[in-house]
């Protein structure tokens, strides 16, 4: 009986998540496009719904909601479904839509998308070879094979995003890095942009006039028929055409210049807006947060380095360690079990919510930047794939943030993976990503004021 | 250098509707082979015989300013785009016949340009929705062009054409539906070519009156 009730609860929540994913897709991602293939929207919402259900089960585990057998059953069910979606459904549809865009392969769409899918499976399988992720007692068709590979990809993505985010966050929040931009700088650049465009226009008018003249004269020249006429027309080309190609080259160069000037002007406007924003109360608050986050970022980088150098993986989770410190050093006595449950619930909840929100925002920005009306379907499916893998791996990694009694369910469901490997891998990629982001931002920052000084 | 009368027409529309292909077709009479994203503004020049066949015939260069971007761009992009909106003689609004959203966004595009040209004393309060009153006292000629005509499925054709006719009526503008990869639609003598000619003929009339924005804003053109 309770199993039935539990299933109903789970199902309702899944429907809710599905609805949320649907709305997000319609309102945010696809707000400038028309949805013509509804299967894309369905696949995206399904991936989102099942990923969120996993997080929900984690929370239920901590809070002790629902009976333990039904939780275990739903964990397993959810895991199977999400692996099915991530490995079979989404890659197949990505292949299908990519093939639909290519005109040559229109006839045999299904055949070619199957070919694409098999290629994907081959590389996906090969991914497991260089990593020590499996113990030899797993057979070849076990679920652990699939999860371990999905985990590797997802953990890499998480570490990349996390490393970049950790560095970029203080950079954008703090006003220390804002270059000084005045109104006159912007006006000067805008004037230069319009001058360039005026020059392009005048050159194109010259080209137009020359072409018209050539066209009118060409009528006369074509009247020279016959053998001798042909020889003459080959050797003595009208002087206009040589000028034309020269002017055309100048126009191309000017057009490139106008594009660059436009982008620089946009940059200056954005910087000026940020300067104005930083003077408001909200801006000052974010500036303060920026200092805090930069310290946090430096600490995380050091921790990652220490973990790699000294080859250790954190044994205790932050909740238990925090409670230990308060009980042992500060001498405050309280009901450990009760508080550990609530604190881990809050901590895990915060981590989940921020990671979902952060990922959705990043995906939206990414989608706006690179999608066009032709490729929007493919890109949305790729984003759904990334999202699914990201969420599965965050469950994997979150195991480390939970006290021992809650870890067992994750270990049971996901099978015996080498969890310490994943943490080590996360640290390595995080370090690499953070350091390269620092380098990248440093170069970008250095380059910008030099560009403005050449005005 | 520049002729005495400059005629400037903006070509606006959502990303990917085919503005660059259209401008290339109008100016070079050729189909654009490799369309790519327009960054900022790309300009081309069309030679137009004003009042062809009459004693008043005059040859004008019409500058077509093809402005890239989307209505939902960040405010820094919008402020930068605003420099292109000075002293405009005409606006061509381009939408994709296979994508309803691009037609809906045309209102926002026209408001973006027209609000820029409003005199500072008149405050226009709008939430972006269409308001016929704002277009009633607009004196800049508009033309609505629908692209990708060949990609509409046969059974939807009537529905789409009715919708676009209403749209053009709302803007108090003529409309042309074509396919930018086929020059046949603008062949000399076709009704589309006549509409286009009539639209461009409205332009030179404005060079006699004051150009919009020339008095109020800094005039960065060199005439």
From TrEMBL, chain A:
Transmembrane segments: 6-26, 38-59, 79-98, 110-127, 147-169, 288-310, 343-368, 380-402, 422-444
Domain annotation Golgi pH regulator conserved: ranges: 142-207
An individual GO BP term: intracellular pH reduction
Domain Abscisic acid G-protein coupled receptor-like: start-end pairs: 277-446
Record InterPro entries: ABA_GPCR_dom (IPR025969), Golgi_pH-regulator_cons_dom (IPR022535), GPHR/GTG (IPR015672)
Membrane disposition: Multi-pass membrane protein
Pfam families for this protein: ABA_GPCR, GPHR_N
Domain of life: Eukaryota
Location in the cell: Membrane
GO CC, alphabetical: Golgi cisterna membrane
Record keywords, A-Z: Membrane, Transmembrane, Transmembrane helix
Major localization class: membrane
Record bears the keyword Membrane: yes
Keyword Lipid metabolism: no
Catalytic activity field: fluoride(in) = fluoride(out); bromide(in) = bromide(out); iodide(out) = iodide(in)
A GO molecular function held by the record: voltage-gated monoatomic anion channel activity
Membership in a protein family: Belongs to the Golgi pH regulator (TC 1.A.38) family.
Protein's UniProt name: G protein-coupled receptor 89B
Gene: GPR89A
From TrEMBL, chain B:
Domain of life: Eukaryota
Keyword list, A-Z: GTP-binding, Nucleotide-binding
SUPFAM superfamilies xref list: P-loop containing nucleoside triphosphate hydrolases
Signal peptide (residue range): none
Entry's Gene Ontology molecular function annotations: GTP binding
The keyword Nucleotide-binding belongs to this UniProt entry's keyword annotation: yes
InterPro entries: P-loop_NTPase
Primary role: Required for KRAS signaling regulation and modulation of cell proliferation. Regulator of KRAS prenylation, and probably prenylation of other small GTPases. Required for lymphocyte development and function. Not required for myeloid cell development.
Family statement drawn from the similarity comment of this UniProt entry: Belongs to the small GTPase superfamily. Rab family.
Protein name: Rab-like protein 3
């Amino acid at each position: 009986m309770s199993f039935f009730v539990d299933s109903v609860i789970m199902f309702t929540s899944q429907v809710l998540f599905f609805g949320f994913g649907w709305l997000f897709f319609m309102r945010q991602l696809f707000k400038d496009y028309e949805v013509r293939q509804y299967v894309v929207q369905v696949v995206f919402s399904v991936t989102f719904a099942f990923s969120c259900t996993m997080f929900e089960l984690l929370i239920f585990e901590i809070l002790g909601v629902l009976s333990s057998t039904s939780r275990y059953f739903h964990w397993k069910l959810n895991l199977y479904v999400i692996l099915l979606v991530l490995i079979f459904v989404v890659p197949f549809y990505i292949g299908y839509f990519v093939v639909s865009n290519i005109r040559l392969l229109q006839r045999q769409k299904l055949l070619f998308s199957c070919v694409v899918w098999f290629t994907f499976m081959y590389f996906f399988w090969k991914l497991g070879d260089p990593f020590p992720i499996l113990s030899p007692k797993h057979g070849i068709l076990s679920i652990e094979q699939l999860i371990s590979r999905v985990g590797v990809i997802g953990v890499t993505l998480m570490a990349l995003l996390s490393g970049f985010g950790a560095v970029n966050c203080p950079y954008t929040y703090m006003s220390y890095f804002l270059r000084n931009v005045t109104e006159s700088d912007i006006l000067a650049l805008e004037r230069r942009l319009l001058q360039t465009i005026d020059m392009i226009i005048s050159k194109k008018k010259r080209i137009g006039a020359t072409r018209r003249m050539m066209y009118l004269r060409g009528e006369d020249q074509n009247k020279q028929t016959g053998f001798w006429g042909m020889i003459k027309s080959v050797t003595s080309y009208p002087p206009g055409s040589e000028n034309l190609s020269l002017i055309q080259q100048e126009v191309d160069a000017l057009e490139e210049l106008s594009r660059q000037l436009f982008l620089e002007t946009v940059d200056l406007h954005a910087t000026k807006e940020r300067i104005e924003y930083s003077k408001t109360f909200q801006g000052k608050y974010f500036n303060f947060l920026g200092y805090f986050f930069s310290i946090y970022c430096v600490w995380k980088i050091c921790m990652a380095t220490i973990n790699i150098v000294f080859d250790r993986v954190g044994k205790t989770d932050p909740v238990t360690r925090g409670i230990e410190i308060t009980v042992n050093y500060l001498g405050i006595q309280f009901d450990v079990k009760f508080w550990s449950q609530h604190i881990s619930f809050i901590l895990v909840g915060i981590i989940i919510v921020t990671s979902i929100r952060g990922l959705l925002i990043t995906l939206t920005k990414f989608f706006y930047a690179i999608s066009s009306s032709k490729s929007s379907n493919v890109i949305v499916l790729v984003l759904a794939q990334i999202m699914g893998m990201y969420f599965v791996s965050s469950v994997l990694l979150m195991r480390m943030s939970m006290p021992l009694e809650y870890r067992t369910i994750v270990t049971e469901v996901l099978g015996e993976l080498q969890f310490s490997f994943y943490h080590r891998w996360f640290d390595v990629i995080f370090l690499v990503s953070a350091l390269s982001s620092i380098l990248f931002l440093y170069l970008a920052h250095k380059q910008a004021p030099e560009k403005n000084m050449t005005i | 250098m520049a002729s005495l009368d400059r005629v400037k027409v903006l070509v606006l529309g959502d990303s990917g509707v085919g503005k660059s292909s259209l401008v290339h077709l109008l100016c070079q009479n050729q189909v654009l082979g490799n369309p790519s994203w327009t960054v900022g503004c790309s300009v081309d020049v069309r030679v137009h015989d004003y009042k062809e066949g009459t004693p008043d015939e005059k040859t004008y260069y019409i500058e077509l300013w093809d402005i890239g971007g989307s209505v939902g761009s960040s405010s820094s992009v919008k402020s930068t785009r605003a420099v292109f909106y000075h002293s405009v003689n005409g606006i061509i609004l381009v939408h994709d016949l296979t994508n309803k959203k691009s037609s809906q966004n045309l209102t926002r595009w026209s408001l973006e340009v027209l609000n820029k040209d409003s005199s500072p004393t008149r405050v226009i309060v709008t939430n972006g929705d269409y308001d016929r009153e704002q277009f009633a006292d607009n004196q800049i000629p508009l033309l609505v062009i629908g692209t990708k005509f060949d990609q509409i499925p046969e059974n939807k054709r009537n529905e789409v054409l009715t919708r676009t006719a209403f749209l053009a009526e709302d803007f108090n503008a003529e409309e042309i539906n074509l396919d930018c990869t086929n020059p046949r639609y603008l062949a000399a003598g076709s009704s589309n070519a006549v509409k286009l000619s009539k639209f461009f003929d409205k332009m030179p009339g404005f060079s006699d009156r004051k150009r919009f924005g020339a008095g109020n804003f800094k005039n960065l053109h060199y005439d």
